[in-house]
Model the fold of this input.
Amino acid sequence: MTRVGPPTLDERLADRRAAIEDFHKRWSAYVRRWRRAAAEGPEAASALVEEVLRDGLPEDRADRAPERASLAAARAVVAASGFLDPEEYAVRHRLRRGTDPYRHHVETGWRMLQNPSPRFDLWSYWVDHLDPTTEGADPLLHWLVVGRHLGWGPVPGPPPARTPVRPEAGAPPRRICLFAAYDADGLVDDYVVTYLRELSRHADVYYLADGVLEPGQLDRLADVTAGAWSIPHGGYDFGSFSLLARDLVGWDVVDGYDELLLANDSCFLLRPLDEVFATMDARACDWWSLQATSMEHDENYFRDDAAIPLAEAKRRFLGPRHFSDVRYLHLSSYFLAFRRPVVADPGFRWRLDTVVPQEAKGLVVHKYEIGISRHLTDAGYDFDTWLPDLQPFHPLYSRHVFDLVGTGFPLAKRNFLGENPRRAPDVGRWRERLAELAPEARIDEMAANIARVTDPARLHDAYDVVQDPATGRRTVRTSALAGHPFRRMDRETPSFGHWWAFAAGPSGRLDPGVRAVLEQVRHDPSIRKVVLTRTRPLLDDVAGEGVTVVPIATLGGQEAVVRCGVIVVGDPLDAALPHAPLPARHRVRHVGAPWAPLDRAATPPALGAVDSVAVASPFEAAARRVADPGLGADDTWLTGLPRHDLLAAEVLPADLAGAEARLRERLDGRPLVLVTGAGGSACSPDDVARLGAWARDAGVVIGVREGRPDAPDGLTRALQPLAPLGLSDRSVVSEAVVLRAASAVVSPSASGALDAHAAGHALLVHRWGDPLDPLLDRLADLAGAGWTATPDDRRPEVALDGRAAARFAHRVRLAELARS
Done:
């Protein structure tokens, strides 16, 4: 079939993939010849390597050769080519002593864009001649045996001469802004609305969040965007830019503007952008940003690191090739503007169209942020920056940030203010300093976001940096210990049976069982309570006598946990305590977890090195001992599950009671059918539509609870057309609140059977992908019965009397008394 018009993106990718597949067949035929030659002796193998380097791959083809043989042949070709300098490669890429540089390159180095030498540019060749969306072939090997014999160069050629673009005087250019966002809690934060409102004064803004936002959040952007979407893709900001330009907005729309602006939510707005745009509108350039950066001019506390005029920086740093992409002068992706010649450039569009998720965030930076900068400079497009000079790397994470703000810089990096990754001193005073330097900045919005999303331990370290005035060395004054120093502190610090630690989950919530036990002793003056937070701030309100909340990954958290003779957890130990103390000096007490097998042969998940666990029946006790052989008969406590106290309680703690009242207010008297578990990828659109139609007819609210609400294949994403209530940990303070409010729970397993019995709702086991009719029939029966749950034979053998946490705490006390 003859093509009409230029090939589409899919057709171009298909052509390249076909060429790569043909390369592998030809290479496999060569590998078989090389193996036979190697069996004859090293001289025969070397002669064959010289032949393929001289003449290229023969046209013979064969099925894929064994990987081990293919790698050995590739190593021989690369080693003989002279395009990999082994000594310099090992130093530049910090290889372990004894690592073979040639083998490192053919196995992993090329995938990580670790250039073999400045004479070969891996990513430029990869994106220009191979398939940039897959790891189809080692670019260096392909060039050695195919590409150079076709006349392709190992590095981009000299840039052509171009005349930079200057906007026409009298009218500002028409701008379109593609804005990339991500929020772990599925929210559109206030600071984002503030930033977008300012951008919308200068451009038509199109917004894409990588993830699944909570229902109603996109409505906050109605008056500040021309279009807004929430789609999980895992490609970071360039994944959003690509999806917007290629599919959601379209290049045909982008072509109607004079300037394309790429921006993301990694920055706080400090002041209006009028002066920035007015300044750059008067400059002649093809693309621009607020600042440039390069590790060739790194921040230095010991020697002069003064800014370099941009023109001088271009003369010094543009042109030379490097082993590592981070050495190249480039513009940062948080704020980039491209004028018409760049937007129309085929190489620019190809690079943006072919963005795909990467295994490591660093590859996103190398391939797309730095990669696009390098392509444009190699293609002769001139850039400019609002800052007149090249500041030391990286200016928005260095000690110079507040100096830049004082000169009028309009943005501040969230990561700098919350995590301070380059350990600049005196960042903890950022509120006072920004209030003085940028009075228009909305400091409260910024502080609220940092408090919500930042790991408390990282926040502590960010603000605890001290600098030695004599040497310039910066250290975290009270940083957490690791390895032997932590174990030594644990051995040398006394632990006490009346010090109890309670481990919070990574979402900042306490497991309902852990919370129930804490409530039991919360106001007991004889017990010191230490609540250990992890990557998020604690959201439970647990203030009380002798209650301390501290991040486990700080020195203060470690000093507290080693004093705790008792550690109460609701997760397996390795998940509950990333800094686990020595087992011999502490007793880890597990509050139990929901578990109800569909058959008597099943065993519960292993809990790890715990000293005891709460159970609800003798059968569960036996099953726990099978799953965790370290548990004896005296270690499975038939107390009932403490979590059930909260599910069945008439009176909840104040914060949970308030959360339940707010949830029931949202339900407005309607039944809640809670969908939990995994399997979103198996939900067919037809099943989702039928479930939604039934819910509307029955006056039912659909809610979703899962571990990762922003997962591309999750239930939240699959059920998004129904606008379900988001009831995962990112949205509600406790699982107990949700289970109490639910009229029915739909789950792929029976593990919630005891929870259902305690909370008084129905549990319906349904795996997505199975026929939907039985589920709809059971839901209809429940609705007809007034949502009265049918008694289940999987009920706890310990009475649901609200005393499980008391019995658990009593067993802990008895165990500690027995040790004294």
User: Anything to note?
Assistant: DSSP finds 33 helices and 27 strands in the chain. The first strand starts at residue 175 and ends at 181.
